Amino acid sequence: MNKTVLITGSTSGIGLAIAKKFAKKGYDIMFHGLETNGAEIAKKVGAKHNVKVAFSNANLLKSEAVEGLIADTITKFGELHVLVNNAGIQHVSPIEDFPNAKYENIVAINMNAVFYASKAAWNQMKQQKFGRIINISSVHGLRASEFKSAYVAAKHGVIGMTKVLALEGAPYNITCNAICPGYVKTPLVEGQIKDQAKAHNMTEEDVVEKVMLKKQAVKQFVPVKVIADMAILLAKESSTTITGTSFALDGGWSAQ
Ligand code: NAD
Fold first, then answer.
1. Which of 59, 132, 143, 160 has the fewest CB within 10 Å, making it most exposed?
2. Residue 66: inside a domain
3. Could you tell me which PANTHER family the record lists for this protein (predicted)?
4. Separation of 8 CA from ligand 1 center, angstroms?
């Protein structure tokens, strides 16, 4: 029987690349995200790889919706082996102008939803004596950049939570790890290029060259494929002893 994976925010960007790779490897997939064509995306990927799929557009701002998403997954698939906490948002602004509502939403989606989803999945994973929780943090979970107070705080928080869940999950073969990408060219980053250009008073081309890739030793965006490959490795049965750690896929940014 196929294993089941739920990937939050899997109808766009990094999450979609991860979902496609898991489908290719024969996992059944619970797709999730706010994109209006989410159900179609899920159906297409399922048909291509001959795996079972479902789709949810639960809004992760609310704890009850996160809990509902996990319950829905277990009802539809009967099991939940791999949880990839990937959904995330960004807002770039100097702190004195940072809207409180944006701060609260970033912390709710990027960090609090990781807690609520993992908590809701815990009992199922414990009963299965198998669970793999993969949190998509960021190089900004390891390093700071100006104008990203909410995002950097939330992503650092996720790395702390990852360590705690690894310790609590160890007796039950539940592992928890974080992946920390550098810049990946997705819709989230396309939006940031515009915001950063405004915040730094620069052209969009200069933002890519002088702000974003400046901190990466390898001067290229991180390909989504690399992140998906890492997620597949972490999800393996044989990866039991890989837990509580953060994998920087950041072109050497955090080596400095
Ligand atoms: P993206 O904007 O392409 O996708 C984000 C996904 O999250 C979408 O499916 C969206 O619908 C979903 N989402 C957003 N708000 C939601 C909400 N309230 N409820 C439910 N779903 C919601 O972004 P991406 O670049 O693929 O980012 C994915 C993850 O990777 C994020 O956690 C991001 O912080 C992290 N990350 C991205 C980069 C990068 O350079 N793109 C770098 C490091 C880390």
1. 160
2. yes
3. 3-OXOACYL-(ACYL-CARRIER-PROTEIN) REDUCTASE, 3-OXOACYL-[ACYL-CARRIER-PROTEIN] REDUCTASE FABG
4. 9
